[in-house]
Design brief:
single chain; 272 residues; alpha/beta; Uracil-DNA Glycosylase, subunit E; eight-stranded mixed beta sheet; 11 helices; 8 strands; globular; disordered C terminus
């Protein structure tokens, strides 16, 4: 796993967490609006900093709101993250994996059609470990919150803007074949940096839900950040609970098709 060096702002934030158990930027947000944040699970980026695929979520994983999954403190979270390989390899049973890492399973099914990561196919444990190692995942708001929403972010846009620029700095740091922002909230959050936007709706079906059809949406965008441009995407329907594992995989397939539509460059994400 390739992990990049921390920026000065991230070093400051990490130092604040270690010394005081809190981060200044989040405390400023809390002083303005009555929202809760958990500092226990607060690693901003996970995975390979040079990965060809970057997934950006709004907030840290909601599954950690479950008391069973919640770590005791920030130090415990660091230890668990540093030993994530052992957790995957020592865990037996797909049911445990699916309950503890349900969102990771959803990401796994979504990413399979991208053909960026070579999965084993025989062991879900090894495949999830490889997924964790080879993709880059970024949290816009790296501190878990049960009630801080995209609307709250936009209402405090000036204060929160450094979080956007931190994410975009990492997305643009290396050539990406795919940069996917998970959740419809990113249409507004990225508006300042979006030069072009094209929304597509399509039907998804599954043999597990016969006679049912669900409308999914995906938006292809051109981002301009510090005079660099990339083609990226916003996966509005990723968290739609109506979409089972079959439909999520189909959603990933449609994502690939939409992102690559009309692109002939060897590395389609970068534009001069």
């Amino acid at each position: 796993m390739l992990v990049r060096d921390l920026t000065e702002s991230e070093k400051k934030e990490h130092s604040e967490l270690i010394q005081a158990g809190r981060a200044q930027i989040i405390e400023e947000i809390k002083n303005i609006i009555s929202k809760k944040f958990c500092y226990n699970n607060s690693l901003y980026s996970i995975g390979n900093c040079r990965s060809k695929i970057a997934l950006i979520t709004f907030n840290a994983r909601k599954e950690y709101l479950n008391n069973t999954n919640q770590t005791l403190d920030f130090s415990s979270y660091q230890v668990e993250h540093q030993n994530i390989d052992d957790i995957f390899l020592e865990t037996d049973g797909e049911k445990y994996i699916e309950s503890r890492l349900s969102e990771e399973m959803r990401v796994f099914n979504y990413i399979k059609p991208f053909q960026i990561i070579r999965f084993d196919g025989d062991s879900i444990n090894k495949d999830l470990k490889r997924l964790k190692d080879e993709k880059l995942e970024l949290d816009l708001v790296p501190f878990l919150s049960p009630n801080f929403s995209g609307d709250d972010f936009m209402c405090n846009y000036k204060l929160c803007k450094p979080l956007i620029e931190r994410v975009l700095n990492d997305v643009f740091a290396y050539p990406r074949q795919y940069a996917i922002f998970i959740g419809g909230c990113f249409n507004k959050i990225l508006a300042e940096y979006t030069e072009k936007s094209e929304n597509t709706s399509f039907v998804l079906t599954s043999r597990n839900k016969p006679n049912q059809k669900f409308i999914a949406q995906f938006t292809r965008i051109t981002l301009n950040f510090k005079n660099k441009r990339i083609i990226a995407g916003i996966a509005e329907s990723f968290f739609d609970e109506n979409l089972d594992e079959i439909m999520i995989e189909k959603y990933g397939r449609e994502t690939v098709s939409i992102i690559n539509r009309g692109l002939l460059l060897a590395n389609p994400q970068w534009k001069s």
